[in-house]
Amino acid sequence: MPGMDVFALIDEKGMVVEWGSAAEELFGWSAKEAVGRSVADLVRDTAGGGEGRREGASDGAADRASDGAAVLVKPVLRGESVLWHVLGEENPPSSWDATVLKALFTRLPARLHVLDDQLRVVRASTATSTPGDTRTGHQLGKHFTEVYDLEDPEGEAAVARRVLENGEPVVNRLVRGGAAPGSPGRRIHSVSYFRLEDSCGDSLGLVVSEADVTESERTRNRLALLDAIRTHVVPSLMLDTVCRDVVEATVPAFAGTAVVDVAEALVRGEDAPPVPADQDVPLRRVAFQGPIAPHPGGEVRPLSAGTPFSDVLTDLRPRVIQIEEEGSDSAWLAADPARADLIKRSGAHSLIVAPLALHGRALGVVSFYRHGPQDRFEDEDIEIASAICAHAALCIDNAARYMREWVVALTVQRRLLPQHPATQGTVDITHLHLPDPEGGGAWFDVIDLPGARTALIVGELTGQGIIAAITTGLLRTAIHTLAALDLQPDELLARLSDTTVRLATAYAARPSGDPRLSEPLTVGCTIAVYDPVALTFTIARAGLPEPVSILPDGTSAGVSVPLGPLLADTGDAPFPATTVSLPAGSVLALGTAALADEVLASSAPLRPLLNSVGRRPQPDVCADIAEAFAGGEALLLLARTKPLPPERVLTCDLPAELEAAPIARSAVRRQLDVWGVDDETAYTAELIVSELVGNAVRYGAPPLRLRLIHERMLTCEVSDAATSSPHVKHARTVDETGRGLFIIASLAEQWGTRYRTQGKSVWAELPTKASATSS
Questions:
Q1: What is the pLDDT of residues 636-656, one digit of tens each?
Q2: β partners of residue 764
Q3: Please, which residues bridge with residue 195 across strands?
Q4: What φ, ψ does residue 197 adopt, rounded to 5°?
Q5: Mean pLDDT of the residues in the chain
Q6: Pairing verdict, β 536-542 and 563-564
Q7: Which residues make Cβ contacts (< 8 Å) with residue 754, sequence separation at least 6?
Q8: Which residue in 123, 190, 181, 185 sits closest to 156, CA to CA?
Q9: DSSP string, 299-350
């Protein structure tokens, strides 16, 4: 061995097994004389100048041999025996070095092992041994993986061999070991490997140091887990998102399986039950992760009485349960056979059941399971489980508050939609509403108009929640008010835009803390007015997709309607209207923006479903589109046209002379007799028509025309070419004229003026006996 002279090899009994030439030179004994003798005898004879000593032996040999400073004794293994190599050193260690080495192996509070090049133990420290501990002596000659009782011995042996081969030390490697006596968990060790080398750099073996860092690592892991929980589980507006974040953050970092069940009341937007909760309080399975096959997600079931899951909602005390196949700790499993079967099949051996509670309210229960090789839960794990649930409860409570708002918003939105759409006999209405999960702002309306006409409205506004729902309600109220003025669709949109501007101003004046403050109010709307007498649609649109018409023969096409700006737009662009004629039995489809590319466009993937409405029932088509549509909130309105029978309409041209009134009264009387209208209604209708014609003769311009329409209401219309606006006058007692419109307003159900491209029509509606009874 370079740098050293081999002196001798000595067995465990101190007998010389080999005697080198360096020993012959130093001590004067030949190999034949030394081998087989006790090393103590040789040293004593050498020190005393024994007669067997060779002439010429070094005079200082006795001194160097007696103080031991000139030799290095190295343990080696041969077979099952430990032998000792005695080597002569060029630089013998000082007494200080020997003291340091002795302190390391006897006082260092970490285990040290010296391994040979076969990774067998040749020396072990005794600092961590207890009095009477004999394990150190039994370790000599064993492979180090047998000494350390490692979870992955082959992996650690591979690490040690790499250090032995390349000399690169491995420091503070965390290794899982066996379970300590009296502890249910496996221990964690910090292990370091250093290669032993001679003066020429050749490998002699390894020094391995090991320290038990179980408690510090568990503390560090707990802190890291809590930090991860606070980072990953953040306040969210959706309850299921919070619960899903909880199980994702805790599996597998803390448990093998995590299950979150929350009180069903929270999902419905109600307050959680107070503590102590009733045994039959229903819980909903919201989130799950792990190998246990759970009950179906979203299932609602009460907790079984007499189980830890129901107990924690009574006393709010989290508990650790060790699951045994037999024993008192697992007796509760009999109260919940379904859960017991799942636990058995999963191989779970321990669990923690912890409550979700805040402000005296029971929000739910979180169950943490560990399986198979995972460490069993201990009482000290309750602290981390409680911290997880405390943070989760805050986030769940925040989500529950929003859930209440969400439920209210959805309820308001549903109530704002027409509950009983118009039942005009001239149009069949079907709608498809796919609401936003957070409550959006899409709506539709079907409004009866005078003359058996029907207004179809589809609208959509930005925003979600209660604010969007309330704004939708305000817009619908404005639309109904404006529709009562019998405005044309383009003018109705212009007036509605003015209303939206005022709403947008109030919308922007919300408190600065409102999270939706950055969202401006934008509204899109399409209005189509169907006239069953002329079989026409007059359409205007603001920001929404182009309507689609499907003819009775199945052909379809987009209805070319100029696109107007969004309502409340700051520009002055108009809302141009288009009038199109469609044969009876045609279907007009109006939709929101989400349907543009998926349904309404000519190349849309769901357009064939829409086109099939010509030969299939409208509800079936809507159901198929709803199933295939993958977007967000959407609203589709389908209107199939039917003509008003010609015998239900009377049209009569009138002269612009005073005799026009008697002519009109006579025509009305004859037609109402044909329709079988009762005498009282007929008399009132004659009076109204007489006043309408009188006003047209006096203030209007020819040509004059009378039209009677008998559908759900009896509508009396008189048209002329003048654009002047009629208004009610309150005549004095002595006045002979000026009471016409006042009389009409007093007798009619409602009345108004509709302006056309040239001229106007003044109309009044009367309920007939049949319509009054049916209403």
A1: 999 999 988 989 999 999 998
A2: 716, 751
A3: 206
A4: -130, 150
A5: 79
A6: parallel
A7: 450, 486, 488, 760, 761, 763
A8: 190
A9: -EEEPPTTSHHHHHHHH---EEEE--SSSGGGGGGGG-HHHHHHHHHHTEEE
pLDDT higher at 210 or 216: 210
Cα(602)–Cα(560) distance, integer angstroms:
13
Q: Return the half-sphere exposure (C-beta side, CA atoms, 13 A cut-off) of residue 528.
A: 32
**What is the C-alpha to C-alpha distance for residues 473 and 460, in angstroms, rounded to an integer?**
12
E strands, 323-470, in order: 348-358, 361-371, 427-434, 441-449, 453-461
Q: Is the sign of the CA dihedral 743, 748, 753, 756 positive or negative?
A: negative
SS3 of 123-170: the string is EECCCCCCCCCCHHHHHCCCEHHHHHCECCHHHHHHHHHHHHHHCCCE
Residue-wise pLDDT tens digits, 246-280: 888 888 888 889 999 888 888 777 788 888 887 77
CA separation for the pair 426, 452 (Å, rounded): 8
- Estimate the crossing angle of helix 489-508 against helix 465-483, to 10 degrees: 150
> What is the token pair recorded at 82?
């430990």
29-56 in b/e form (b: 16+ CB < 10 A) is beeebbeebebeebeebbeeeeeebeee
Find tokens 């285990």 and name the residue.
Answer: 111
If DSSP codes are grouped into helix, strand and coil, which group holds residue 372? coil
Proportion of the chain in helix, strand, coil states, percent, rounded to 5: 35, 30, 35
More confident residue, 171 or 489: 489
- Cα distance between residue 29 and residue 38, in whole Å: 13
pTM of the model: 0.54
> Vertex 328, ends 326 and 333: CA angle to 5°?
70
Q: Measured in Å, how far apart are the chain's first and last C-alpha atoms?
A: 116
Which positions ≥6 away from 291 have C-beta within 8 Å?
256, 257, 346, 347, 371
DSSP letter assigned to residue 249: H
CA dihedral 146, 147, 152, 157 (to 10 degrees): -80
Tokens of 169: 């030390």
Measure the CA–CA gap between 225 and 283, rounded to whole angstroms: 27
Quote the longest CA-to-CA distance of the chain.
Answer: 170
**Matching residue, tokens 């101190």:** 14
Strands 453-461 and 441-449: antiparallel
Spell out the long-range contacts of 153-161 with Cβ–Cβ below 8 A and sequence spacing 24 or more: 156/191, 157/119, 159/193, 160/115, 160/119, 160/193, 160/206, 160/208, 161/119
Rg, C-alpha atoms of the chain: 48
Contact call for residues 72 and 97 (beta carbons, < 8 A): no
Predicted pLDDT at 737: 46
**Measured distance CA(83)–CA(17) in Å, rounded:** 9
Q: How many CB atoms lie within 10 A of CB 316?
A: 17
Q: Strand 548-550 to strand 111-116: parallel, antiparallel, or no bridges (unpaired)?
A: unpaired
Measured at the CA of 170, the angle between CA 165 and CA 173, to 5 degrees, comes to 135
Q: How far is CA 614 from CA 422, 427, 550, 617, in A?
A: 22, 14, 6, 8
Distance CA 742, CA 745 (A): 5
Cβ atoms of residues 556 and 610 within 8 Å? yes
Give the SS3 label for residue 396. helix
> Residue 58 above 70 pLDDT?
no
pLDDT at 59: 46
Where does the pLDDT of residue 511 fall: very low under 50, low under 70, confident under 90, or very high at 90 and above? low
Query: Position of tokens 């029509």?
Result: 761
pLDDT category of residue 572 using cuts at 50, 70 and 90: confident
Which of 142, 345, 366, 330 lies closest to 245 in space, CA to CA? 366
- The DSSP letter of residue 274 is B
